[in-house]
Specification:
By secondary structure, the chain is an all-alpha fold. The chain has helices at residues 8-18, 21-36, 50-59, 70-83, 100-111. The protein starts with 7 loop residues before the first helix and ends in an 8-residue tail after the last helix.
């Protein structure tokens, strides 16, 4: 059952805007994870359902799924440096394999200048 604010036509519009259902699903999942971890909303949204918020962020063209290329990584790195005043905080990453969730948590914590949990 879909949320009353999420009509099928609206979802299909989002799928088309993003480039297909699979890309939209990835974008929605990543953004939901960010919002659940405390990221600020990119639209003025009063709905408590975060999926509705993400859909509205996509509709407002506040979100986009970037392909993983060297050029895009550099653009994201430059944008992050702009947020941190050009001096990114060093983040230590152990030599062991780190999963994606842990890396996202460390990036989020570094940007918010809060120490990671357990340190």
């Amino acid at each position: 059952m879909t949320h009353p604010n999420l009509q099928q036509a609206k979802l299909e519009g989002v799928y088309n805007d993003v480039g297909g259902i699979f890309k939209a699903t990835v974008l929605i999942q990543k953004r939901l994870r960010e919002l659940n971890r405390g990221a600020k909303r990119l639209v003025e949204e009063q709905d408590k359902n975060t999926i509705v918020t993400v859909i509205r962020e996509i509709e407002a063209q506040r979100l986009d799924l970037l392909p993983d290329t060297d050029e895009n990584r550099e653009a994201v790195r430059a944008e992050l440096e702009g947020f941190t005043g050009g001096a990114p905080r060093p983040t230590e990453v152990e030599a062991t394999t780190t999963n994606e969730d842990e890396l996202e948590r460390r990036i989020f914590m570094a940007l918010n200048k809060q120490p990671p949990a357990g340190r």
